[in-house]
Design brief:
2 domains; two-stranded antiparallel ribbon; single chain; mainly alpha; Arc Repressor Mutant, subunit A; 10 helices; 241 residues
C-alpha cells in the first residue's frame, strides 16, 4: 500500500490512511477471516474501513469483486502484451510470457494472494468465479493463437489446445507457490511448467515429435530358423529400395 502525502513539503506521512480502495480490501479480508465470507456484509466492510457505502461501490460492483480486485487490470495488460506481438515473435513463447504477467500479479502481494487462495478454497461461489476468470485468460491466449495460426487447416484446434496447456502449466506452478504460503520460487516453478509447453509444441506451435508415419517392416521367417538367418532377412529388407 502506498501512503498519501501531507504538508507543503509533500513528504510521506506515516500516519496517513492508505488509499481508500486498499483500505476497503484490507477491511474486507480482515472480516472474511474473522467472520467468514458469507457472514460479512458490505455494511460491515465500510464500517470497519470508516467510509460510506457509496465509496465502496465506486470501486467494487459487489462484495465478490473485492476478493478479485486486480484481475481486470491484469487481463487488460496481458491482452495489450499479446497485441504488441511482432509478426516474427514465436507464438507459443509469446503466450507463455503472457501467462507470466498473471503470475507476477499474484507475486506482487504474496500475503494477500495466499489469503485469497485459502478463502476461495472455503467458499464455493468464489471458486466458481475464479474459474470464470481463468477462462477469460485462456480465451485471450486462444484468440491470439487463432490469429497466428489462421492459415493452418487445424489452426483453431491447435490454438485452443496450446492455450489450455499454457493455462494448466501456469496454474500448476501458481498453486504450488500458493500452497507453500508464497515461500517458494514462483518464477522458477513457472519456467519449469511453461517450459514443458514449449518442449511439447515447439516455439511455432508444431509438435516436436515427428508427425510423418513411420515405415513398418514385417519379416516372415520359418519357425526354428537360426537367429543369423532372421537377422540377415531383416537387413536385406531394410536395405531394399
Amino acid at each position: 500500500m502506498t501512503s498519501s502525502t501531507a504538508g507543503t513539503g509533500g513528504t510521506a506521512d506515516p500516519a496517513a490512511k492508505p488509499p481508500m480502495r486498499d483500505a476497503l480490501i484490507a477491511a474486507a479480508f480482515q472480516l472474511f477471516l474473522e467472520r467468514g465470507y458469507e457472514e460479512t456484509t458490505v455494511d460491515d466492510i465500510v464500517a470497519l474501513a470508516g467510509v460510506g457505502r457509496r465509496s465502496f461501490f465506486r470501486y467494487f460492483p459487489s462484495k465478490l469483486d473485492v476478493v478479485f480486485p486486480d484481475h481486470d487490470r491484469c487481463l487488460a495488460d496481458m491482452t495489450e502484451f499479446l497485441a504488441d506481438s511482432a509478426p516474427d515473435d514465436d507464438p507459443v513463447r509469446r503466450v507463455c510470457d503472457a501467462a507470466r504477467t498473471v503470475l507476477r500479479m499474484y507475486a506482487e502481494n504474496p500475503a494477500f494472494s495466499v489469503q485469497r487462495y485459502r478463502l476461495t478454497k472455503q467458499v464455493p461461489g468464489l471458486r466458481t468465479h475464479e474459474l470464470s476468470v481463468v477462462w477469460r485468460y485462456e480465451r485471450a491466449l486462444a484468440d491470439y493463437l487463432r490469429r497466428r495460426f489462421a492459415a493452418r487447416p487445424d489452426g483453431i484446434l491447435r490454438a485452443d489446445v496450446i492455450a489450455a496447456a499454457v493455462v494448466a502449466a501456469h496454474n500448476n506452478a501458481l498453486r504450488s507457490w500458493l500452497r507453500s504460503g508464497g515461500r517458494t520460487d514462483a518464477e522458477a516453478a513457472a519456467d519449469h511448467a511453461l517450459g514443458l509447453v514449449t518442449l511439447s509444441f515447439g516455439a511455432s506451435g508444431r509438435p516436436l515429435v515427428d508427425e510423418t508415419p513411420e515405415d513398418v517392416v514385417v519379416v516372415v521367417s520359418r519357425r526354428g530358423a537360426p537367429l543369423w538367418r532372421v537377422v540377415q532377412e531383416i537387413e536385406t529388407t531394410l536395405t531394399r529400395d
